[in-house]
Write a structure and sequence with these properties.
Blueprint lengths: L2 E8 L4 E5 L2 E6 L1 E6 L2 E3 L5 E4 L3 H15 L15 E5 L3 E6 L5 E7 L11 E6 L3 H9 L6 E5 L3 H6 L5 E8 H14 L3 E7 H9 L14 E5 L2 E5 L7 E2 L18 E6 L9 E7 L2 E7 L14 H4 L2 H13 L8 H8 L3 H13 L3 E4 L4 E4 L6 H6 L2 H11 L3 E4 L2 E6 L2 E8 L2 E4 L2 H6 L7 H10 L10
Helix pairs in contact: 7-9, 8-9, 11-13
InterPro entries: Znf_SWIM (IPR007527)
Pfam families: SWIM
Protein name: SWIM zinc finger domain-containing protein
Length: 457
């Protein structure tokens, strides 16, 4: 498995402290992106939280996911959450070490006592002493939140004094990015009021025993959800329900639970579970199986395979300005591109970690993950293999059919009404549910005349 080491440097540890006016939560930032470019310790917010105890528990839930492995639990995992300032809100994101759960806490404008936020993305230090302090926090005592160094630290800190080094596998990077693109295909399937939301979530298993294994399905029934043995129309997949445990942190404050997912087609699928809170939203997105991370889903491979999409994404990225809600129609007008090509460009930007997806708004938002997500794209196994097949002349086109030579075998790829199929074992196993196989992807590249590194078209 390809991996690098991510070094996170902070000027000091994050702390929760008491002061004469209440409490102060100082979240220290590492290097990140801002409208002014890269900064060592960007500052995004300084103000009061409208619901401090709820925000503290929501932040703990995000940190829970960052530190968790819901599959192969014996392996260590911990990477500090990512924070984005979008001008009118703060977003805290994390991704589990097993690559199967994405978490985000959106602290909206009404949760920030009217104070605007800065713009940019970076990591924030959430250390063990801070987690313990946040978990003990109670009552409605005012809480001042600072995201980034205070003015004193800006002028007096000579260098980083806290450094964390964390292994960063390519599949983790790909999964973090692909979770956004998977969410863009979801629709709202159910909304439960507070009492039913609490009852349903507390009825789920919290361990990975036999009751929590395999794909489970739930279907809306009045104001609640009921289990079903098969994916009937309107059903939502709930794979590995124990992975929703982090939502328990905020259940007592929930006003609703929203459930999102793709149309049920009989196969296990990803889904998203959003708890609505005062001035905030906490969302967990689950991969199709606890043992199956987002990195292997392959739903974005076709968007990565053509030169046109790459050029469009580069153009669209220049027009982004840390918007909390990206409007494709406006971008299309600015870029001089059809809306369909702008949407494809956003998919590609999503795989590079440059946009996230907000289900409640049904829109992408601009952020720049503080990792080299492009590296994960370059090393995507299927994409690399497909480019090699195309470069080596292994694809022979014949109308709707194509023959692909791979090793000692030949496979037949058929394209009908824009859909691809292949005679390989991968296609027999997944039928396109995890994206195209390397043979179909190579055919797509050759048909569209994509340039491949080191060879001709």
């Amino acid at each position: 498995m390809t991996r690098t080491v991510q070094a996170l440097a902070y000027s000091r540890p994050s702390v929760l402290a008491s002061s004469g006016a209440g409490r102060s939560l100082g979240l220290e930032t590492a290097g990140g992106s801002t409208p002014q470019g890269a900064e060592a310790h960007p500052r995004f917010f300084s103000g009061f939280l409208a619901s401090p105890q709820i925000a503290a528990r929501g932040l703990l839930a995000v940190a829970d996911v960052a530190a968790a492995r819901y599959y192969q639990r014996t392996l260590a995992a911990s990477l500090d959450p990512v924070v984005t300032g979008n001008g009118d809100r703060l977003r805290f994101e994390s991704f589990s070490g097993c690559c199967g759960v994405y978490a985000r806490l959106d602290v909206l404008g009404e949760g920030l006592e009217g104070v605007k936020t800065g713009h940019g993305t970076t990591n924030v230090d959430v250390n063990h002493p801070l987690r313990e302090a946040l978990s003990r926090m109670g009552g409605d005592e005012p809480l001042h939140l600072r995201v980034g160094p205070d003015e004193m630290a800006v002028t007096t800190t000579g260098g980083a004094v806290v450094e964390k080094k964390v292994p960063l596998p390519d599949r983790w990077l790909r999964g973090f990015a692909e979770a956004q693109v998977a969410s863009a295909a979801f629709d709202l399937r159910a909304e439960l009021p507070a009492a039913e939301a609490v009852r349903f979530l507390r009825s789920l298993p919290t361990s990975s025993g036999a009751a929590a294994r395999g794909a489970r399905w739930v279907v809306p029934a009045g104001r609640t959800l009921r289990p079903t043995t098969r994916p009937v129309p309107g059903a939502v997949c709930l794979p590995g329900p124990q992975r929703l445990t982090a939502l328990q942190r905020v259940l007592r404050y929930a006003s609703a639970l929203r459930v999102y997912g793709p149309p049920a087609d009989g196969a296990a699928a990803a889904s998203a579970w959003e708890v609505v809170l005062p001035g905030m939203r906490l969302t967990l997105t689950l991969s199709p199986d606890a043992s199956r991370g987002f990195s292997g889903e392959g739903g974005v491979l076709e968007a990565l395979a053509t030169d046109e999409a790459a050029a469009d994404a580069e153009l669209v990225s220049v027009l982004l300005a840390w918007e909390p809600r990206i409007e494709p129609d406006r971008l299309a007008e600015q870029a001089g591109l059809p809306v369909e090509r702008v949407r494809a460009a956003l998919v590609r930007l999503g795989t590079a970690g440059r946009v996230g997806y907000d289900l409640a708004d049904a829109a992408y938002f601009h952020r720049e993950l503080p990792y080299d997500a492009d590296r994960a794209e370059r090393h995507n196994p299927r994409l690399v293999a497909a480019r090699r097949l195309a470069r080596e002349g292994a694809v022979v086109l014949d109308g709707e059919l194509a023959a692909v030579r791979s090793g000692d075998r030949r496979y037949q790829v058929r394209e009908r009404s824009g859909a691809l199929s292949c005679t390989c074992q991968w296609w027999a196993d997944y039928r396109g549910r995890r994206g195209p196989c390397k043979h179909a992807l190579a055919v797509r590249m050759v048909r569209r005349g994509a340039a491949v590194a080191g060879g001709a078209r």
